[in-house]
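HEAT repeat domain-containing protein
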Amino acid sequence: MFDPDIAPSGTLLGLLQRGRGDGTLHALAAPRSEALAALHHCVLRDPRRDWQLENRSLYYARLHLGLDGGLDAIEQHLFDEDDQMDTGEERTGLALSVLGHLAGYGRQDALLLLRRYAATGSNWAWALDELAVRDEDTALRALGRPVLARFSRTPEGEARLAAAVRDAFEPRPWRLWAESPDDPDGARRVLAAREQGCFDRWQRQLRPAGPRPGWSVREVLDWAQQGLEQHPAQPRHAAAARCLTAVAAPEDRPEIVEAARGGQDGARCAALDYLAQQQDTAALDLLDAAATGGPPPVAEAAVAAFERMRSTAALERARGWAHRPDAVGRAAAGMLARRGGRSDADLVLAALRRAVRAEGADGDGLWPLVEGAGRLSIACAAPVLRHIYRETSSSHLRGLAAGALAATDPSFAAGFAVECLWDCEESTRELAALHAEIGDQRVVEQLRRLAADPAEEAEVQTAVRSRIGPDMPAV
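Predicted structure tokens:
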């Protein structure tokens, strides 16, 4: 996760960075040089808040085709000297994905660029995955020698090769290289690497690092504490809570409650999580105390455990906590948004407005509140939902806002739903296909494009076909 520099939402660059449908429509109407400059800025400087979650590649590839853009800027970015120094996937991943979609649309220059980068670039594995689903066998086999040459014939090099084969997202190239008659030496190396990967998995299964049958409650709590001390970024308290479910007996409750009240951080997190799962009568008070007065790891675990509770008592407590400005209050409002009834609409709306005022249109706590506004059909929330839709830099949050507007705003079908047909997120395009008014000629044309586009997701095309019939106006 990182915070990119996002332009204002009213600018062409800002629209394209957000992946909004209006970005495509404005770019196609703008001077071509200006539109291409904004598009290349987005492709070469990934604007996503979470590049592993949000979609942009198909959106940018389609616009690239619409503008008939060249690949010189992408080529310069991929083969810049920085490629050997900054090897993080986030620097080149979006550009490679855009090239992959362009290759899928028949752009031979994009295919050649991917082959070249797979042979020489630092993020070669990503390029290889793009080629694996689009390129022909002969071209993939030709990449075997340059890719295998990256791994030295030392124990360390062979270990890295085994890891690369094991972790490959698309196995097709490795399978071709393992069967290649033109490079028997490379085939032997790939086969050995595949066998080593299988052996490594077998060894890990023989030497589990987790709890074993017969462990006591104290041993499970100690294991949770060791995990927090050894790997703070990957705590074990959730796994430890599940283990406690298996080993704890009624007579162990006092020990677990005591650990939840004042144990070491890792053990306390596990105990709190376990008591919340069991809907224990003491859980809510212990979670409140930990969330408001505990150290950061304990406070975060307590809030997360409360959010997962499903009891009526937790829902009642959430109604009393939803007005609080702290993390507990935000979690309580989120619980009401997800599970509350119509009587909780005012609390959810107040929390939504409070969150936007405090954190803007990109606040982390907005997601459940936006969904809740739609689930509870809070019509008064439409103005703030429209603000979130326009301003957020998260395409997923914008999609949630679009879904909530579909349930709360009568003008959605003739308004935002139209531009959502060009949105970067497939779920948002699917929503638009179901709601956009057919009377708009742009809607008819775009629905037909989506129905015929081989790169479009099946769910979107299913929604499109539900709207297309013999009575649809001709383009």
